[in-house]
Amino acid sequence: MTAQLMVSLSGINAWTLERSADLSDELASRGVPLSMLFAPKIAGADQPGPVVDWVRGQQAAGNALLQHGYDHTADLTTRTIRRRAEFASLPAHEAGLRLTAAAATMERLGLTTDAFVPPRWVASPGTLLALRHKGFALCADLMGIRVLRTDHVHRGRVQGFGFGERTEPWWCFALVMGASHAARRGRPIRLAVDTTNLARSGPRQALLDAIDIALHHDATPLTYPALLTHRQARAA
Length: 236
Known about the structure:
Largest sheet: 6 strands, parallel
Number of helices: 7
């Protein structure tokens, strides 16, 4: 069985747009589409402007947009890293309120998507229920990609980078070796990177090396939404 390769980018905002564009160009040169994880209410991106224009352009070029929570910037700071992620423990009602607010912001920006990734890849049962009620098609979490209409889960763990300079070499090594291992066994390869990682040469190069080794083993590059279409076509 041929492996599927999915690369996602989070942390897209006005201050990281150059890094985001650089990664997109690197992936495009390899024929790999990008899954953009976009939080509607983040500084520099909740109003029309360069960030939204770039996201629209990427969609037009074949990259995918996934809603990445609503407003979780506080959860990404080192001071609050131990707090629960935005959608990790919400009941359905509260999750629905945040999704409604996010939908209003996305509509104002002229962006649409029916794919969702919770901050830190953790979604509560209430969040999954609210996503179904709001008409989302998929939710990608830490351990797999859930088809919300059928509740079927395509298993495959996210691979990304941890925190701390002392552990950075280990994370880089693990990312590359994990991608190679999964590709040789025909398993899903889910590589996740934040724009903060791209500011450092080690993680950036490790990500590209992991992508290259997956492609060397004939992995099929896809976005998260395209994975569902790909699986359905193979089943047919």
